[in-house]
Amino acid sequence: MTTTTPHANALKIMVIDDSSTIRRSAEIFLTQAGYQVVLAEDGFDALAKINDHHPALVFCDILMPRLDGYQTCALIKKSAKFHATPVLMLSSKDGLFDRARGAMVGSAAYLTKPFTKDSLLAAVREHTGGVSTQE
To answer: What is the pLDDT of residue 1?
Structure first.
């Protein structure tokens, strides 16, 4: 298995999760697919990094310390610069309430953990308009 080096113009994907295992898994899957990956361990970390990196898509865990995923998503969506950036919620719970609450704060979709490489990459393609990393 070879790791592909992302192209300089590859799409940037931000992954916000307090679990280093989830962040690392997502980073491996996305990097192998040719995307640039920006990691954040909580909402505050993500909000500090989002301005510098301008990700095309954000994966955001729901249950995090200090600033949870719903609050983080709402703050990203309230930003004039990032309101159009798709935010996909990540959660180990697959409940209707969680999905509805995510939609209320502006999330584009909901991915249940643990995710597979295929489900993660399918979500990226779906919410970035199927944009190739080879543009």
So the answer is: 38
Question: Residue 7: which pLDDT band, with cuts at 50, 70 and 90?
Answer: low
132 assigned to some structural domain = no
CA angle 1–18–87, rounded 5-degree value: 80
**Strand 109-112 and strand 57-61: pairing?**
unpaired
Q: For residue 103, what is the enclosing H or E element?
A: helix 96-104
Evaluate whether residue 61 is within a structural domain: yes
Q: What CATH number is associated with residue 96? A: 3.40.50.2300
How many separate domains does the chain show?
1
Note down the domain range covering 80.
Answer: 12-125
pTM: 0.89
Q: Is residue 16 part of a domain?
A: yes
Tokens of 49: 């990094």
- Please tell me the predicted confidence (pLDDT) of residue 131: 55
DSSP lists the bridge partners of residue 15 as 39, 59
Q: Are strands 57-61 and 12-16 parallel, antiparallel or unpaired?
A: parallel
| CA–CA dist 74, 66 (Å, integer) | 15
